[in-house]
Amino acid sequence: MEDQSSHLQEKVAPASNEDLLHKMRGKSSFSDVDLATEDEAYHVEPTEEDWAELREVADILPVSAYLVILIEFCERFTFYGLSGPFQNYVQAPDPGHYPADQPGALGKGQQTATALNTFFQFWGYISPIIGAIIADQYLGKYKTIVVFACIYFVGLIILTLTSIPSSIQSGAAFPGFIVSIIIIGFGTGGIKSNVSPLVGEQYQSRTPYIKVLKTGERVIVTPQATYQRIFNMFYWGINIGSLSAIATTELEKNVGFWAAYLLPTLMFIPGILIVVAGRKLYVQAPPRGSIFVEAGKLLMYSTKVKGGMKACKPSQLRTTHPELIDKVTWDDIFVDEMIRTLKACVVFCWFPLYWLCYNQMTSNLVSMAATMQTGNVPNDILQNIDPIVLIFLIPIMDRLVYPGLRRIGISPRPIARITIGFFFASVAMAYTAGIQSMVYNSPPYYNYPSEGDGPNYISAAYQIPSYVFIAISEVFASITGYEYAYKKAPESMKSLVMALYLLANCFSSILNFALVSVAVDPKIVWLFTGISAAMGIATPIFYFCHRKRDLVDVEEDAIARQGTVKKAYDYAEPVSETELEAKYEAEMQHAA
């Protein structure tokens, strides 16, 4: 097939062409076209009266979606399993024996440990941009995941080998740790930007339809409710996998860091095997080599043509700038997709503050727990309260709360859900600031507990609500962010838009770097207070700025590619049924 940059998608044909479209849907093999399924052709679209009276429900998820969730489970088991012990590994010195009251290896102190942990988060969330470009423009999501999984595995081997006692004693552990987190961060970034769009791609329906349940109730099956369920399940798999930190933090204390890193390394192997074994089952959108050039040209033209990006639609350029029409390689739908994507990216600009709240859970909250009474459990095991809460909370929200709200006519759209998530993140940091103040007011070391020979006399159980509030915030903000990034991205740019969403975590790491100087006793209480205040102020402003996006959420999601491909200069011309069929047959013969 000739260069896909010269091919474009056509609008849905009028109702008079339904039989032809049904024929096309049944036999099309275009790799870059998102066609409706044959079953969807028979779906009855809801009327305005149906929307007012019937509730929304999610569709049945395909088996391939569950396979992708299983892949993510293995990768997150590995990631959280090895990163869980990072703070202790870098911060505390090697106790020289196991079990240890305070596990450690490198003895670099809290500031260095927090800085390196923050760098790992930063690198792991900026590298998805590289993986996204490779996937969208060159290899496709599946092949990119395979390549980056191999890179990831190399980093795991280095981390495990340099954490054995002989490597720690010889001084190889610290440089080995630096090299390994760079390689692992690069590997995980390439996977993260592609595995979440891949799970979304497994569901192909793009339009709502009426369905009659076994109870006789008529409901509306919507892509919005289905994608909400898909990414709820996806995030549930992430948090099941993250419980590996319970095992690895116990291993670091009772066996050694080499055992803590060996377990997730071994768990990564089944993940790779699942990727390879299921390759024929996944719905895969191939790369479109010209997509970034095309997007760049559209943005450039939008600055030159009066009326902005909307005026760059081929249907308008034919009248206003006919001299440009031969240079245009996009269609009207691509312009609509780009406008929708840019608006989504503006929403992502608010997420760095949210991730700044979240990331305290794996750094300063861990260090705080080390200054509190933890009994016989490691100080860094408490962070697993967050995924444990999510494992129970996500199914409750997905199966009870959201369906219950839909039954009474309430269907919370993305901006409203994200706002609720931001609010709970602020509450989490405010509560944590209060607990830090209690630590400073407790004997025997008061404001300088990290400099004492033991913890202050206050139970680490006081931290539990911090993790609960963070978990609640994730259900509303983080999961919805994944869903929003997938839905609002063009088919050919889903990895890139997902990477831009993940990039917000990278910027939060930069903010965290700026706060490292405050992450020392007795200033930490002000660190948590400042973060809470910033998130609290941003939350209502965010909703005020973006609340109107919820009003057009369903309408925007309906922007989709259906039908055959055709040239931009033909886009605005009416096409008869005979011409449409002839163009389709010609393209099919050319593809063959």
Briefly say what this structure is.
This protein has 592 residues and is mostly helical. The protein has helices at 18-27, 38-41, 48-53, 63-83, 86-91, 110-126, 128-139, 141-161, 165-170, 173-201, 223-242, 244-254, 257-277, 291-304, 314-320, 332-348, 351-359, 364-370, 385-407, 414-440, 464-488, 494-514, 524-546, 553-557, 577-591, and strands at 8-9, 56-57, 209-212, 218-221, 565-566.
Main sheet? 3 strands, mixed
Number of helices: 25
CATH architecture title of the largest domain: Up-down Bundle
Mean pLDDT: 83
Structural class: mainly alpha
Number of domains: 2
The largest sheet has its strands arranged as 2-4-3
Task: Explain how this protein is built.
The protein is an all-alpha fold. The chain folds into two domains: 4-31 and 289-297 and 305-330 and 562-591, no CATH class; 56-287 and 335-557, MFS general substrate transporter like domains (Growth Hormone, Chain: A), CATH 1.20.1250.20. The protein has helices at 18-27, 38-41, 48-53, 63-83, 86-91, 110-126, 128-139, 141-161, 165-170, 173-201, 223-242, 244-254, 257-277, 291-304, 314-320, 332-348, 351-359, 364-370, 385-407, 414-440, 464-488, 494-514, 524-546, 553-557, 577-591, and strands at 8-9, 56-57, 209-212, 218-221, 565-566. Strand 3 (209-212) and strand 4 form a beta hairpin. Its main location: membrane. It is a multi-pass membrane protein. It is found in: Membrane. Keywords: Membrane, Transmembrane, Transmembrane helix, Transport.
